[in-house]
Amino acid sequence: KDTEGTVIYLMLLKMIVRAYMDKSTTLSERLESAWYVVFVCRIWWSWLKKESSSSSSKRTTACEQQNHINKYFITKPAYLSVEPNAHNMLYMVLLVKQHSLPKQALINIHLFNSQGCESLFRDARSLSGSFSTIVNFTVNNFIKRSQKLAILNQFKYDQSEHNFLFQSIININTMID
């Protein structure tokens, strides 16, 4: 009985992956999984709120009740992404049904996550060099870095298309010979 909460939490994570990341999930399964997570989170939050207010004395402040909820609930950023993502997916389905979006918009839902953005920012930061302590940059700096990344990606593409070889690491033994 002590692990029921953990099992439900892990089930929610599995449903999130199924709804937004798994390529093989059908559209109806995506919608079902996304809204299952939303409704379970709503019920969980309501239950925690009810429990913290009924079990607390009159001297317990609203801040202490909120701390109790925060202790046993998913993080606020996680919750604030669960609900809008489910609404967004449903809205996309409606737009496709109304012929405002092509059907292909629903095929690549697994690509609608932040992984590509995070990878782009990681690559942009890596252009600073290994001895740089600068981790943040302005929008203008980011645009310049992303243009450099586009050029590097074009080189990589050309390399694979035309069998160009760019030596990225020089072997010390070849320098000695």
UniProtKB/TrEMBL annotation:
It comes from the Eukaryota. This is Uncharacterized protein. It comes from Rotaria socialis.
